[in-house]
Structure to design on (786 residues):
């Protein structure tokens, strides 16, 4: 068991009436001049954006709006936000949307209070020492960014997608009304749950398998997500299951399910390169890579994969054949991905085989020009990254 | 499923080396003149108290010490602390100990910044609007006060034990080194785990049983506590299981296992009166009352008790006899209590039967002079409280 720090100070206001509290929350955390950041037109069409802005203005706050954040959010939009905040003296950020909008907000927050170029943080050239305070009105459960210390930004200059982690960007509050996720299309719903489950699995596959407490909590959330996704695909307006997915998304990535365990994150890194090159949906890119990652690494700790197969995937434990049980758990996960419309390899993700050149390009970027390994469950060298992309293609 | 607010901002620093960080944490959260609050001589004998004070002084902080907190912590000690803090201009509190010391600290924190009498909060006559900031160096896992918004104080004037809840008292940080709990006697270890499990069970027995996500998390923690307590009773220096109990104690009471569910707390209220009258160990008083509470109320939601029996207590589900399964779950809990040395009724707790007068006195206080009900799973009127005490005696 590893020593750990657990710090998840975000105040979560969860439920149908939660949106009524956005102005009170901004005021509580000291906001006066507020940037409301959002994505496409769905936030406006649903009336949520106007509702939030109206409420903030009626509370006497000065409101600025900046929309247009896209999935795999872009550095150019972040720069636009930083400039706007500086020009107007904005002191609080409110993200209305999902992970992309929140991550864009976090990057703006870092950038406003930093003298240099905000990409420095994502490029590993600088460490943040502060961030403008931000709050969230969540519409898409997936990234867990509403409680996390992570953000991921794509730099169009070079098709590079990079994450940065620091406690300064933890949102002050997160307002979560599960009804706001009713209109999510099936694809985004399924990709969101895939991402949520992967945030848990990136921590679950560990050699610190003596931390039963965290393991039990992780399995409980995984089982719930696995059940709830079918209920909301069947009935998009099922409050109970939309709510469990929304809250599960936060718990999956606020640090709880990693306490005491070394986490991995290789699947995320492998998936990021797919998203950067093909603008692939994040959750779907993870599903396309995970089965190959799992088959490549499971022998590092077979009993962990056996536990996953039995406790999460409901596979019968063949005590005489642990490897067989472990592999049947991975197969069960593939069946689950297919059942919710996710790919299980890259061909299914992009509609064709990867070329050798594309594999080489992704390996180069994922290994940071052959200078860096990925993952901890099995430390992946350049040749391992290449093998997994080839298995997954 | 209920709407909810989840807010657990305490920074947890967990592990063997965590104690080295106490001065840095106090400085981070703005402390300059620090009251170190503790209980008996064990904190001094173990060297922990000196280690903490020395570290704070070497960091340039001014340190004041106040010991002598007893289990079921007293209002008189709280008043002494408030006076000391005001006299010396103390701006930060550090609790070194378990729930009693932390709760005493919280009450001091409320009192210092309040013009009236601190007991007003516990008597329900006033609402706190602030609290001096505090941090914790935890030695006894049980109360969960290191991350909770609760505190419980005993007023010697009238043998009254009362709790008060507000977000202001949430500790800024909690330093948790499981090794510090190695020297806990068997009785305190078992009573501590009983309290931890009861913090979960007070939330678990609910009519909001559609909140599967919270239910799964709760069951996972309960199962882990149930296993780990036997391991540490067998081997008090088992780091892994001491660690899981310590972290489990925080998760049990930081709000996580109540999200979306109406909580109950009747067992705690019934137990508090036993502690107030007989100075009984809190955890043991809970064990003495719970089986009777459970048998009195289980018909309000039999399927919840069936789930508890099967998923937590490992009872075989007799699908043809839900009531029988529910009752076998309660019996299994009694066997568990006995196995770890806890009582299952009040006779076992105090060594004799309660007198009728004692029952009447506890019923009067528990019902606040017959003016108040207790609990939510079943709302307990005065006559119900009396029935449960009679069943438990």
């Amino acid at each position: 068991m590893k020593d750990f720090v657990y710090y998840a100070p975000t105040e979560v206001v969860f439920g149908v009436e939660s949106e009524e509290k956005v102005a009170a929350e901004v005021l509580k955390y000291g906001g006066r001049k507020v940037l409301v950041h959002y994505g496409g037109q769905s936030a406006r069409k649903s009336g949520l954006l106007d509702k939030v802005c109206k409420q903030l203005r009626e509370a006497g706050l000065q409101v600025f709006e900046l929309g247009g954040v896209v999935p795999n959010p872009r550095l150019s939009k972040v720069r636009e936000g930083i400039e706007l905040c500086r020009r107007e003296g904005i002191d609080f950020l409110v993200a209305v949307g999902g992970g992309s909008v929140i991550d864009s907000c976090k990057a703006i927050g870092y950038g406003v209070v930093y003298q240099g170029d905000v990409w420095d943080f994502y490029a590993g050239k600088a460490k943040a020492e502060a961030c403008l305070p931000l709050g969230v009105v969540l519409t898409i459960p997936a990234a867990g960014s509403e409680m996390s210390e992570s953000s991921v930004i794509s730099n169009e200059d070079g098709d590079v997608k990079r994450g940065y982690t620091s406690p300064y960007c933890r949102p002050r509050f997160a307002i979560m009304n599960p009804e706001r996720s009713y209109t999510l299309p099936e694809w985004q719903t399924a990709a969101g749950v895939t991402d949520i489950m992967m945030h848990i699995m990136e921590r679950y596959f560990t050699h610190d398998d003596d931390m039963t407490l965290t393991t039990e909590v992780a399995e409980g959330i995984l089982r719930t997500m696995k059940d709830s996704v079918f209920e909301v695909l069947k009935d998009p307006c099922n409050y109970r299951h939309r709510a469990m997915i929304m809250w599960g998304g936060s718990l999956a990535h606020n640090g709880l399910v990693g306490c005491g365990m070394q986490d991995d994150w290789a699947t995320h890194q492998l998936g990021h390169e797919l998203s950067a090159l093909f603008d692939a949906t994040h959750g779907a890119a993870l599903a396309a890579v995970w089965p190959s990652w799992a088959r490549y690494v499971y022998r590092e700790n077979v009993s962990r994969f056996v536990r996953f197969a039995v406790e999460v995937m409901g596979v019968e434990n063949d005590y005489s054949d642990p490897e067989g049980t472990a592999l049947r758990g991975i197969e069960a996960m593939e069946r689950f991905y297919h059942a919710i419309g996710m790919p299980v390899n890259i061909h299914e993700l992009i509609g064709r085989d990867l070329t050798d050149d594309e594999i080489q390009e992704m390996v180069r970027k994922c290994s940071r020009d052959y200078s860096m390994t990925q993952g901890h469950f099995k430390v992946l060298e350049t040749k391992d990254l290449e093998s997994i992309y080839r298995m997954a293609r």
Summary: The longest helix of chain A spans residues 212-234.
